[in-house]
């Protein structure tokens, strides 16, 4: 399996996937920390996280895969939502909570 196939399998295999620096418990950058906090406040209790600091191949190839240059990267239902700024905007508008509720209801 190529690294791009591995990334696609992670996205296809989980309703919510967050590619981040660190872990939800120990985020290694402020953007990842704020994204985890927004997900928590939006009601996401369980989701897949991939620590790109421990997965150098994913870190190197995900920006090309998603056409998004920075981390974190949030995917919901296979779709790139975006990074920290977009996630925070969606959270502030209530849209992130609606998206998470849809995942929980499925």
UniProtKB/TrEMBL annotation:
Assigned keywords, A-Z: 2Fe-2S, Iron, Iron-sulfur, Metal-binding, Redox-active center
Question: In this protein, which residues make up the domain named Glutaredoxin?
Answer: 16-81
On whether Iron is a keyword of this UniProt record, the answer is yes
User: Single GO molecular-function term?
Assistant: metal ion binding
> What InterPro entries would the database entry show?
Glutaredoxin, GRX_PICOT-like, Monothiol_GRX, Monothiol_GRX-rel, Thioredoxin-like_sf
Annotated binding of [2Fe-2S] cluster, by residue: 29
Give the residues the record marks as binding glutathione. Answer: 21, 59, 71, 84-85
CDD domains documented for this protein: GRX_PICOT_like
Q: Which Pfam families match?
A: Glutaredoxin (PF00462)
Q: PANTHER family, from UniProt?
A: GLUTAREDOXIN FAMILY MEMBER, MONOTHIOL GLUTAREDOXIN-S14, CHLOROPLASTIC
- Family the entry assigns: Belongs to the glutaredoxin family. Monothiol subfamily.
Quote the NCBIfam families the UniProt record gives: Grx4 family monothiol glutaredoxin
What is the name of this protein?
Answer: Glutaredoxin
Taxonomic path: Bacteria, Pseudomonadati, Pseudomonadota, Gammaproteobacteria, Lysobacterales
